[in-house]
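Take just one protein record:
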Amino acid sequence: MLETSVRLLRLMALLQSRRDWSGADLAERLGVTTRTVRNDVERLRILGYRIDSSTGTAGGYRLGAGRALPPLVLDDDEAVAVAVGLRAAAAGSVTGIEDTSLRALTKLEQTLPPRLRGRIDALRAATVSAAGGGPTVDAEVLTTIAGAVRDQLRLRFDYTGRGGTGSVRTVEPHRLVYTGRRWYLLAWDIDRDDWRTFRADRVQPLPPAGPRFVPREPPGGDAAEHVLRGVGARAWRHQARVRLHAPLAAMGERIEPGGGMLTPDGDDACVLETGTDSLRDLVIYLTKLDVGFTVLDPPELRDVLRELATRYLTAAADATAPTQRGGSGPG
């Protein structure tokens, strides 16, 4: 039979692994009687952990939210996943969370066995971050928005538009969408009677939230797709549509979500909707994809390609070929 302290840790791990447990299932997993399970549950309650119980055929135990954070018992893969996530958060896009993430990561790595520490160190050494330097968002702003989304409460906030103009918006928040560079809020704008996408780093919530609302179905049924399409349509000086001569599945592996929206165009092609502040930069980006493409919009992008094509042809000319001179010599 397991020692009591070890058994309590095992019991906590089981209670954390799924929502509900019967006393018989816990007893079988721990190799003890159901009476011992009841006694161990009571010991955990004395330590300050909330464990709800119910009687009857459907009765059992459930770990609840108490005053103290219970010890987390992680398996190897879970521990590595948490460490990697904390390290990413330490360099992330949420203001003020970097130091907190580093402190939590330090505590975790101090307790990791050597075999896991080696896996994490190897992953860190082999990884180079190419994340964009997007604006950071205050963690309290994100949690306020997320709470309003969860509780289906209207949200009022001060919003700074792209041109620096401020306004007060009242919305029904639907989802937070993270593109890898920026956080966005997709919401139904009450005053404009339409869906709007807001940059979360420009949002300053105004308390209190409410009243409650009935959630609406987002356009197309996909919040992330709608936000990415809207970002491509409004956030850039130029919007572009380009047919890529490669299947959607192949291009989906090369183009990050923030790079634009992909839609199928037959079995062997797809259409990329994207945006840019520089058409020449977009040409460079498309060239790096290393596939054939056809510009659908805008016409100015075709003009840039023609100009560059002429320049490249001139540069590729044989410099050793004799130059053909015009006119005739003196008679």
Observations:
- The chain is about 40% helix and 20% strand.
- Residues 51 and 63 are 5 Å apart (CA to CA).
